Automatic annotation (TrEMBL):
It comes from the Bacteria. It comes from Enterocloster bolteae. One of its GO terms (molecular function) is endonuclease activity. This is Nuclease SbcCD subunit D. Heterodimer of SbcC and SbcD.
């Protein structure tokens, strides 16, 4: 059986104030095309469908259209909630959707029932474990002393239906947890000190583990314990990620192959560095994707007036602007004047020197004096 594994759609997310909704529609349409080409036996969606527990209406409409597109292609879909989702909202209508083979993980209540599938190699069980915390599992077994995420996930897996019977068959788990050893990036919400981590050994009895939560595509330990990663870049720590969907095929027990299909975004996320003059030169930007989402670092020693506004006339989707020069590298900050009796022009010259690592020119000093005099006269 062949499956497409994806996760962490974060529909409705805003990055540095920019709505990603059009980019998300574009990439989900691309995933539908990949599904048509691959003709999988199911699609596994490992949580964080939305970016917020109460998503905006537009985000719900986007996911509804995506689910409908998968169902119209007669593809079974398996969906769990992540830490960004409301499990109750995501599970709503789950019983009705089963008729179209759209399986929504119910709110965790201590039971983990598989969906049974059949092919020429026999039965295959798909378990859907939504994101769980220790407190959620404690409600199901108050006498067990569940304290950590490790305790919670272990108990949930050990008490799943068909646990002993399924050891001889093929088993897939869809989960949304932080497995120890996974590489993180800035767009994820993780617990301080790694308190939310669980060990990879908990999943040893599964032939394939479709993980969500970590945004970089990667395996953890073995090829068949895998994070598919986000379909889009959601932070500049991800500029070097190659986003993809995972395609996994399970033949007879123990024979699993894992491949990826690359995704191409509507707007890439990139970093540019150079002086203002360099970055605004037609020779530099001509023929490049100027509408990508950009983090620009200017190396000018002097701040450019309204730099981000001017840069956006060429690069409309500048998300972030920084400076890297002598001042910023030394980490110096402007402090209160030590001597309040200094003449205003001297204080201005000291401030200019501190900000720009060079003295004011004579022309600049003359202009500043005249401006101060005009302001002084106007206030009298």
């Amino acid at each position: 059986m062949k499956f497409i594994h994806l996760s962490d759609l974060h529909i409705g997310k805003r990055v540095n104030g920019f709505s990603m909704l059009e980019d998300q529609k574009y990439i989900l349409d691309q995933i539908l095309m990949i599904a048509e080409e691959e003709m999988p036996d199911g699609v596994l969606i490992a949580g964080d469908i939305y970016d917020k527990p109460v998503p905006p209406a537009e985000a719900v409409q986007v996911f509804d259209a995506f689910l409908t597109g998968l169902a119209d292609r007669n593809l079974p879909v398996f969906v769990i909630s992540g830490n960004h989702d409301s499990p109750e909202r995501l599970a709503f209508g789950g019983q009705l959707m089963k008729d179209r083979r759209v399986y929504m993980a119910p709110v965790y209540d201590g039971h983990l029932e598989p969906v049974q599938l059949e092919d020429r190699y026999g039965s295959l069980r798909v378990y859907m474990l939504p994101f769980i915390k220790p407190a959620v599992v404690r409600r199901c077994c108050p006498e067990e002393g569940i304290e950590t995420f490790e305790d919670a996930v272990r108990w949930a897996l050990e008490h799943r239906a068909e646990h002993k019977k399924g050891e001889d068959g093929r088993n897939i788990l869809i989960a949304h947890q932080f497995v120890t050893g996974a590489s993180c990036c800035d767009s994820e919400e993780l617990s301080i000190g790694g308190l939310d981590q669980v060990s990879a050994e908990l999943f040893d009895s599964f032939d394939y583990v479709a993980m969500g939560h970590i945004h970089g595509p990667q395996k953890v330990g073995r090829d068949t314990l895998r994070y598919s990663g986000t379909p889009l870049k959601y932070s500049f720590s991800e500029v070097n990620h190659r986003k993809s969907v995972t395609v996994v095929e399970l033949l007879e027990k123990g024979n699993v192959t894992v491949n990826t299909r690359p995704l191409r975004p509507l707007h890439d996320m990139r970093e540019l560095r150079g002086s203002y003059e360099e970055l605004t030169s037609r020779d530099f930007y001509q023929g490049t994707a100027v509408d990508d989402y950009l983090h620009i670092t200017l190396t000018d020693e002097e701040d450019i007036l309204d730099a981000i506004g001017k840069l956006r006339s060429i690069y409309p989707n500048v998300m972030k602007l920084d400076y890297d020069n002598k001042r910023t590298r030394e980490g110096r900050v402007v402090e209160a004047a030590a001597n309040a009796d200094k003449p205003p022009i001297v204080l201005m010259e000291e401030l200019y020197q501190l900000q720009n690592n060079q003295p004011m020119t004579e022309q600049q000093a003359d202009f500043a004096v005249k401006l101060m005099e005009e302001i002084w006269e106007g206030s009298r």
